[in-house]
Amino acid sequence: MLRHSLEYTCDTLGIPLSELEDTAVLVLPENVDCAPSPTDLYDTADSIELAKAFKSQGVSCKTAFDLKVRPSVKDRRGVDIWVGVIWLVQNTALPIALGVLSNWLTGKLRADGSDRVANSPGASNPMIHTEIRIEDTAGQSRIQFDGPVAVLLNVLAALSDDRGPKK
Amino acid sequence: MIETDLDQLPSSSGDLAQTVLRWIELWQDAMNQREFTRAAEIVIAAIRRHIIGTEEWRSLGAARFHRDLRVVLNGLRDLSNLCHVVAEDAWLETPHMVERAWDLLHDAEDRLNYSGLELEFRESCLHLVDQAREAIQARFGAGLYTSWEVAFDWAECTVCKLDIRACEHLPGQWYDDQICSIHPIGLRPLAVALVENPRDPRCRIWPWNKREKGPDESGIIVECPIYIIFDPEGPEDGGMVVDLDDLRG
User: Is-contact A149 A108, C-beta < 8 A?
Assistant: First the structure.
C-alpha cells in the first residue's frame, strides 16, 4: 500500500475503506502518516474549526473523530495556522470544497471573535501549515504547504480556475 | 454610538442602561481632563453596577449586549489605567511600568475590538493604545515572545458540553444567550518555543527578565510568562486602579 493512499490511511486509523463512502473531504491529523498508533494522533483547534466550516456549508466532511478514532487536541500559541491533512476525496466536490477553504482562510486573516491577534507582529501575514491531497481520475496530487496564508489563497484560486467548469 | 444599542433594550431595563451611559459620559469627562485615576474609578463603579444589574437584565434578554457592554467597560478601565501609567515621566525607564503598560494596552485593545457594540469613541481610544505601543516598540523593539504548545484530551463545547468535534456549534458564534468556545479538558503542556509572532503578545520576554545558566551551560530565561488566561469579561469586582507605587518598587 502506498503511504499516502486512502487504503493506507484507513489501515492506520483502523477503519474499513467503505467508511469513506459518500465522503467528499477528510480533515485528518497532521501526523496521520507517522503516528505509531491511533492513540498518538492529534487534531488541532484550527483543523476542528475547518472541519466544522466544511460541514456547515453542506460539504460531506469527516474527521478522524467522525471515524470513531479519538485523537487528542494540540494547541500551539502562535499566530500560525495548523490544519493537518485536507484530503479532497471526491473530485465532484472540489469547487465547493476549495471555495469553503478559501473563505475560511480569508476569515482567519480578519482575526475576529475571541481569538483576536490583529496587532500581534506577524498577524497581518500568518503562516499556514497543511498538506492538501486531491484525488481524481488521474491519481493523487499532493501539496505540502508551509507558507503565508495569502500565498495559499492564490494557489487555491489557481486550482479552482484549473479544475472548475470550463467556459 | 452606544445610545443606539441601549435603545434596543427592553424599556424596563432603561434605568440601568441610562445609568451606565451616564457613567460613560463621566468617564469621558475625566479622561478629557486627564484625571485618569478618577476615570478608572468611575468605570470600575460602572462595572460593579452593571454586574449587579446583569441578572435583572438577563431576564429581559439581550444577553449578548450585556456581555459586550461588560467587555467594553473593562476595556475603558484598562485604557484609564494605561493612561495613568504612561502619564508618568519616567515610565519607560521603569521595568514594571513598561510591563504593566504593555499588558494593559493589549487588554484594552482586545476588549474594545472584541465588543460587537458600535462605539463612536473607539478610534480615539485605540489611538491612545497605539501611542503607548509605539513608545514601547521604539525603545525596546518588536520583541521576542514565549509560545507554548499544549495537548488536551478533548475539547468541550461551552454550549452543549459535548466534545466540540461531535456537535454542530461553531466557535465564536452565539446560541441564544451563550457563545460557543472550546474548553480544553485534560491539559498537558508539551513545549515552549521562542517566537517573533506570538498569538498572545502579553507573553513577552523583556531585556530585564533574568538569565541563568543551566547545569549543562544552556541558557535559561526565568520569570517570564508562558501562558496568560485572558477573560474579556474581567474580574467580578470590576478590577482596580493601578498603584504606581507598586510598579516603582
Answer: yes
Contact between B140 and B206 under an 8 Å Cβ cutoff? The reply is yes
The Cα–Cα gap between B195 and A77 comes to 10
Beta carbons of A145 and A154 less than 8 angstroms apart:
no
Q: Which residue has the cell 424596563?
A: B12
Q: Does A115 sit within 8 Å of B147, measured CB to CB?
A: no
Q: Please tell me the distance from the alpha carbon of residue B165 to that of residue A28, in angstroms, as a whole number.
A: 12
> Which residue of chain A has the CA closest to B171?
A49
Question: Rounded CA gap, A58 and A100, in Å?
Answer: 10
Gap between the Cα atoms of A96 and A165, Å rounded: 12
Measure the CA–CA gap between B38 and B163, rounded to whole angstroms. 45
8 A C-beta contact, residue B179 and residue A112: no
Give the mean pLDDT per block of 10 residues along chain B (249 residues).
41 61 87 95 84 63 76 95 97 96 96 81 92 97 89 93 95 84 89 85 90 80 81 90 92
| Contact criterion met (CB < 8 Å) for A114 and B199 | no
Question: In this structure, are residues A148 and A142 in contact, taking their beta carbons and an 8 Å threshold?
Answer: no
Could you tell me whether strands B174-175 and A61-63 are parallel, antiparallel, or unpaired per DSSP bridges? unpaired
- The reply to whether residue A121 touches residue B106, judged by beta carbons under 8 angstroms, is no
Evaluate whether ipTM surpasses 0.85: no
Looking at beta carbons, which residues of chain B come within 8 Å of A120?
197-201
Q: What is the pTM of this model?
A: 0.76
The backbone torsions φ and ψ at residue B223, rounded to the nearest 5 degrees and listed phi first, read 65, 40
Per-residue DSSP letter, A137? T
Question: CA–CA separation, A97 vs A57, rounded Å?
Answer: 9
Across the interface, of B170, B193, B203, the residue whose CB is closest to A52 is: B170
Distance CA B50, CA B30 (A): 20
DSSP B167: S
Among chain B, residues having any CB pair with chain A shorter than 8 Å are: 106, 109-110, 113-114, 133, 142-143, 147-155, 163-166, 168, 170-172, 179, 181-182, 184, 186, 190, 193, 195-201, 203, 227, 232
